[in-house]
Each structure stands twice: as structure tokens, then as C-alpha cells.
Specification:
The protein is of the alpha+beta class and 124 residues long. The protein contains one helix and five strands. The protein has a single domain, classed as Hotdog Thioesterase (Thiol Ester Dehydrase, Chain A, Roll), CATH 3.10.129.10. The structure holds coenzyme A (COA). Coenzyme A binds next to strand 2 and strand 5.
Amino acid sequence: MTTPETRNLAIRTVMMPRDTNHLGSIFGGHILSLLDLAAGQHARTVAMKKYLTKVMKEVNFIAPVFVGDIVSFYTTTVKKGRTSITIKVDVEALRGVDTAQTIQVTTAEVVMVAVNDKNEPITI
Ligand SMILES: CC(C)(COP(=O)(O)OP(=O)(O)OC[C@H]1O[C@@H](n2cnc3c(N)ncnc32)[C@H](O)[C@@H]1OP(=O)(O)O)[C@@H](O)C(=O)NCCC(=O)NCCS
């Protein structure tokens, strides 16, 4: 189970105007890109290998993200297989100044596969 004690902070960054969509909120593709990076960083803490993203599943955009939000990507190992690591990513936004609140904005599960120099799966 993911708890504040068992999860790792993989990435924390501020959302910038360049990352918005035509509606003025943050482009989902930007969040996906950071999700991917967060999962990759987490995998390297489990075993120091080179990884490729095999699967992104159950991506749930729960609430929109806005310019100025401080967005944190928390990661947890769900499963360590022979060549793959399945990682849960929980994304939270810290919003506001005087009355800042933390909002759960996205969750996802990512499968990263360890590969050799020929990009073939290898045992972790
Ligand atoms: C990653 C890659 C090297 C894996 O090679 P593959 O031959 O497809 O891999 P396999 O079928 O042997 O599976 C590798 C691992 O992924 C797991 N896996 C594969 N499909 C899965 C799925 N749908 N859900 C969960 N796990 C999955 C397998 O169970 C295996 O894990 P295990 O060894 O721990 O049991 C290859 O698919 C690839 O190069 N993909 C493109 C990667 C890429 O470019 N990513 C960036 C996207 S732009």
C-alpha cells in the first residue's frame, strides 16, 4: 500500500506557462512526460540499469493542474519481475500562497524494462 512513509519523491517541479494547453491548464502530455521520468528515476534506485518504458497503464487524470502549481511525483515499487519493475506514480499539486492546499491530480502505473546496449531485456 502507498503511504507517505513508503513512497519516494522522484521529481518536484513548478508548472510554467509554456506547459499549458489551449484551455490555459497544464497539458496532459507534460504530466505524462514527467511521469515517465519519475518512473525511470525510481527504477534506477531499485537496480542501477538502463530502462525503457514498456507500459503506462491506469493513467487517471483526477484534477487539472495550473501554472504556478508545485507538482510532486511520488513513486512506489508495485512489483519487481525478472526484467521489469512495475511502479505506481502518485502526482500531487501544491496550490495557492497564503492558503496552500495539496491536491491529488494524477495516478498511474508504469512498467520499466531493464535493457542491455542492444535494447534487449535483461535480468534485473
Ligand atoms: C521494452 C522492450 C525492450 C521489451 O521487449 P519485449 O520483448 O517486448 O519484452 P518482453 O515481452 O520480454 O517483456 C519484458 C517485461 O515486460 C513485462 N511486460 C510486457 N508487457 C507487459 C504488460 N502489458 N503489462 C505488464 N508487464 C508487461 C513482461 O512481463 C516482462 O517482465 P518480466 O521479465 O519482469 O516478467 C521493447 O518492447 C521495446 O523496445 N519497446 C519500446 C520501448 C520504448 O521505446 N519506450 C519509449 C516509448 S516512446
